[in-house]
């Protein structure tokens, strides 16, 4: 019922042993999020277009839906595929405000779609893992620390599968207060210009600060000095204060950023660091305090693989405002470049730890019964598809990466199980045998680049 | 950034305590599928339109995509959202034929979309859980038994959460052979007419068999007699043979159906039955042997909540043909009517088993440390959002269904944990305490209708 097609650019698909990598990462993140009390939800894939178009920047990337056989005069369905999980979450909170308990911690691991030009790390369909906390009217600051901590733990729980990762943190109050403190006429304009530091050389940014930001040479220099500050500990605060700018909002921002960096300190390792990065601005204008971006060492070309921050009004229905803070981790963004380069893969292409051999077609019931006893102990098992020579059955297992082949004993003889990697073969009882822990489930294997 | 919207008809969304139900069902199915060696994959949400339109019946239900800001002259993206998981799987097999090991067992749990009129059990966005086995050139019959068995075990593993379920099975060879045996001029036309038995009274179907199927009165009567046969054991075979029709294809079909019913016998219980249903035809013409449908007692208005069968050519690239056999379980179709009527819900709205109380804001680090020690033992915990009176903190836990509240000991005193349902409060150490097994994770609660 299907004939071959070229694969669609920007819509990546994984082979079974690659899917194991993504599944492992998603399961690990979910486990961490749930340990911290975050409730899982899913939102529908579509949103009304007027919702999706409120974020001007991405309007040209939305996929609009229409029914193929729309009736005469029927317009587009007025819906598009969501391009992130934040817009749908905000809408979900408003739709269900009367039924949710606030503060509401949620995680959401789902696909999103953007019609942009595909390139490495940029896909038209991709999976994100988001955590957010939202409250009614007011959201205490300690939740900024909490979401940073939870995402940091989630990523750290992946151990050394990923390259060293950094969660860069900054605070809008800090930088806005600083720009105000130096006398910038329009601090939010300065934020927009400073945000270009990852694309333009420092001198070009300084020129823009002067020409478009209305700053003096000296003020522009101060802004660049602030942006140069980066520290994996609270030492950043002294560096900021050494610039001798004073402003109450700046002080609040410093205190908040210190809290986030301190709150995550115990998660830091040589594989994962939370870093105060004072150049981090995030262009979008709805962030009002903490801002985050996630980076993967050696993959700077991808820019950030995640990000987020504090919104004082994640959602509002006119009467009530719902402030939120959250971080999104780009699952596809992070993993697909690693999987694509062969740096991560599953140890086998099937869940089975055991292939039960089949002596002849008449023995299928016997082999099935052995497999059922193994499964009853939580050991994934499959029975050989055909009663080929045992050598062929072993190669069948080998090609799938199945570590053990089970030989049911003939005529009262004991069963035997063979580790096909070592060739060791021992007697075993399917009612009690289990493989070594590492072999029970497919593992994720990492190759050095 | 978002204002309230009426929810979109046909795009259901769940509250957190409802999502727990769906997650539990998906996790249970996945666990069963993996124990049997089925590999998980996901396919992209979109397929080229020409692929989607090959199944004529559903062409008017496809959602077509277009980029909102398509460039001048740019047509529709030529893609639509998939309406099932079979068409994408067939295409995936062809795309990756050189990289897959055959026979290939896969499960796929994903959303699909149809632009049809929403009604109970019929959604525009819905989740399905599919298992299929596909092979190159030839697929041994025992896989028909296997997929029936695996899906039966998956559903049976849900215990009594669902109403009693039936997996109805029939065989195209059996009925086609029977119709040939009685001398029907066009057996496949008879199949199409018999398929209407779930919509039309028997007499109306008999009339159609005579008028459109070209049968005599006596032949039409025999067809209806066959369709009346239904049995939860292999007794159906004698009933068919008592109709005294002989045909070699009929005999093959009887043997195959006996094998499926026998192979699933040990899964049968008062909650779940595999039933040979000789009226089951499934209209689609690509089924060539075994056919399945899943029914939920008391929800006959939904018709089937799943189905599938054997395709002799699931996919073909012109040179090689890929026969398959599979079953799809409608996760949304089954669960949403139950959840919507309040028959199933999660025991709490958050994963947390413990709320760690907060004496005052200065104690937040202490309470956080307790929560971290609990999490290190796999116990999901959250810290109270604000240092309210303890009575208020207990009600905070109650509203979310969190069963335990933890009180860190002040000044060297031991910590205490309170079961807020019984009121029992005991001393406990966060490094070793775990809740009773039933309380560790949210459970799924069932209300009698």
UniProtKB/TrEMBL annotation, chains A, B:
Highest rank taxon of the organism: Bacteria
Keyword terms of this UniProt record: Aminoacyl-tRNA synthetase, ATP-binding, Cytoplasm, Ligase, Nucleotide-binding, Protein biosynthesis
Catalytic reactions of this protein: tRNA(His) + L-histidine + ATP = L-histidyl-tRNA(His) + AMP + diphosphate + H(+)
GO annotation, cellular component aspect: cytoplasm
Residues covered by the Aminoacyl-transfer RNA synthetases class-II family profile domain: 1-351
CDD domains associated with the record: HisRS-like_core (cd00773)
SUPFAM superfamilies: Class II aaRS ABD-related (SSF52954), Class II aaRS and biotin synthetases (SSF55681)
Cytoplasm is among the record's keywords: yes
Top-level EC class: ligase
EC number: 6.1.1.21
Region (Disordered): 419-449
GO molecular function, one term: ATP binding
Feature: compositional bias, Basic and acidic residues: 438-449
Binding site for L-histidine: 84-86, 114, 128, 132, 282, 286-287
Name of the protein described by the UniProt record: Histidine--tRNA ligase
Originating species: uncultured Nocardioidaceae bacterium
């Amino acid at each position: 019922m299907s004939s071959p097609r070229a694969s669609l650019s920007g819509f990546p698909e994984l082979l079974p042993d690659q899917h194991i990598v993504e599944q492992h990462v998603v399961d690990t993140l979910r486990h961490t999020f749930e340990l911290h009390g975050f409730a899982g939800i899913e939102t529908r894939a579509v949103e009304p277009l007027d919702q999706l178009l409120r974020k001007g920047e991405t309007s040209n990337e939305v996929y609009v839906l229409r029914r193929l056989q729309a009736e005469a005069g029927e317009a587009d369905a007025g819906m598009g595929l969501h391009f992130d999980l934040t817009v749908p979450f905000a809408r979900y909170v408003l739709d269900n405000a009367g039924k949710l308990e606030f503060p509401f911690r949620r995680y959401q691991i789902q696909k999103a779609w953007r019609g942009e030009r595909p390139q490495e790390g940029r896909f038209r369909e991709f999976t994100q893992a988001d955590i957010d906390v939202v409250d009614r009217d007011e959201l205490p600051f300690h939740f900024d620390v909490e979401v940073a901590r939870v995402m940091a733990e989630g990523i750290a729980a992946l151990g050394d599968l990923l390259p060293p990762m950094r969660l860069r943190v900054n605070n809008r109050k800090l930088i806005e207060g600083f720009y105000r403190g130096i006398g910038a006429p329009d601090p939010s304009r300065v934020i927009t210009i400073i945000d270009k530091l990852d694309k333009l050389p420092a001198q070009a940014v300084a020129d823009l600060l002067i020409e478009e930001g209305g700053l003096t040479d000296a003020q522009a220099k101060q802004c660049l000095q602030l942006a140069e500050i980066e520290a994996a500990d609270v030492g950043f605060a002294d560096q900021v204060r050494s610039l001798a700018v004073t402003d109450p909002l700046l002080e609040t921002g410093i205190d908040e950023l210190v809290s986030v960096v301190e709150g995550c300190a115990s998660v830091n390792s040589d594989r994962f660091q939370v870093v105060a990065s004072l150049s981090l601005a995030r262009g979008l204008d709805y962030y009002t305090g903490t801002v985050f971006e996630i980076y993967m060492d050696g993959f700077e070309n991808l820019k950030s693989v995640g990000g987020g921050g504090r919104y004082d009004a994640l959602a509002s229905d006119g009467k009530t405002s719902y402030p939120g803070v959250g971080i999104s981790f780009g699952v596809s963004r992070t993993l697909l470049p690693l999987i694509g380069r062969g740096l991560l893969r599953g140890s086998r292409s099937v869940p089975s730890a055991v292939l039960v051999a089949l002596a002849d077609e008449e023995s299928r019931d016997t082999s099935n019964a052995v497999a059922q006893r193994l499964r009853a102990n939580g050991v994934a098992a499959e029975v050989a598809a055909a009663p080929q020579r045992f050598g062929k059955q072993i190669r069948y297992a080998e090609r799938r990466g199945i570590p053990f082949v089970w030989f049911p004993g003939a005529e009262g003889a004991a069963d035997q199980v063979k580790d096909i990697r070592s060739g060791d073969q021992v007697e075993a009882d399917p009612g009690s045998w289990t493989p070594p822990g590492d072999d029970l489930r497919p593992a994720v294997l990492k190759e050095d680049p």
